Fold this protein.
Amino acid sequence: MHTIKWIPREQLFSILPLLQMINEGVSHSELEVRLKALSEANYRCAGVYDDKQLVGICGVWTLYKHYIGKHIELDNVVILPGYRNQGIGEDMLQWLQEWATKEGYVGSEINCYVHNSEGLKFWLNQGYKLIGFHCQKKWE
C-alpha cells in the first residue's frame, strides 16, 4: 500500500536522489541550487511513499497559457525502478487530477525527453496527446 501526498517545502530536498536519476550530467550541488530556486516559485512536488520511503515524485507547476488556460505542468516524474509497473504512476496522476480539478485547473501537460520511449508510451496510455515540440537553446 502506498500513500500520495504533497511533500512539505521544508522536506523538498528529500527528492534529490530521485531527481538525479533522470537529470544525468547535472551535479548534486547544482540540483540543490535549482531546487531551492524552484521552492521559491510556483512549484510543488507530490510524493509517493511506501511506508516512510519516498518511492516516486512528480513536480507540479501551476500555470496559465493562452492555448490551454489554467493548468498544471508535470515535471520530473520518477518512480523507483523496483516500484514501476505496479500502477503507482497512474495512481499519482489520478490523485493530481482530482486535486487540480477541485482547484479549478482545466488540464495538464508534460514534457517527455525524446529518448524516453517508455515514458512517452506511459503518457500516451494516460490520454496525453502530442501537440508540439519542446525546443531548448543554452547560451554559452
Summary: The longest helix spans residues 88-102. The CA atoms of residues 19 and 76 lie 7 Å apart. The helical segments are 16-22, 28-39, 88-102, 117-125. The two ends are 47 Å apart (CA to CA).
